[in-house]
Amino acid sequence: MSEKSATVFIGSKPTMSYVLAIITSFSSSNVGEIVLKARGRAITTAVDVAEIVRNRFLKDLKVNRIKIATEEMPAREGENRTRMVSTVEITLARE
Amino acid sequence: MSEKSATVFIGSKPTMSYVLAIITSFSSSNVGEIVLKARGRAITTAVDVAEIVRNRFLKDLKVNRIKIATEEMPAREGENRTRMVSTVEITLARE
Q: Are A93 and A64 in contact (CB under 8 A)?
């Protein structure tokens, strides 16, 4: 069976809950790589999650690819301009 | 003359002051690439800076390389354990 790619969206939950989600995903199925996606302030959390998973738990993982980009977000209520927000995608894969 | 590499440390100043420093550095000297280094919460700022420079000002730049890592920081006063902090290095270069 070929290996699948999974995506985990990093938001404002505690860092360790994403770490756990990734470990579970890698160990319970035929997932070969996981893409962590985050934007804005959650970018720091995404880097923390990737580093904790690799350094403390799954030492055979490597960072395959890191992409940064910009997304246009709809204006908040009361504002009339769209906002630009930075995004990051970190791909973790088995070596 | 060969092209040089410069390093910009991203901290807690306003995003646009780093953007300006990078534009100045690229346009006034023989700098061929700039490495943005940040840790902790400044990681988000570093991604913002890279995206703003590339999308709004110097459209011929590309992101050559992004590295993430973990650094051990000395304990804060009153704490007795070192802290681990995530770091990022984003290399911007002329195409």
A: yes
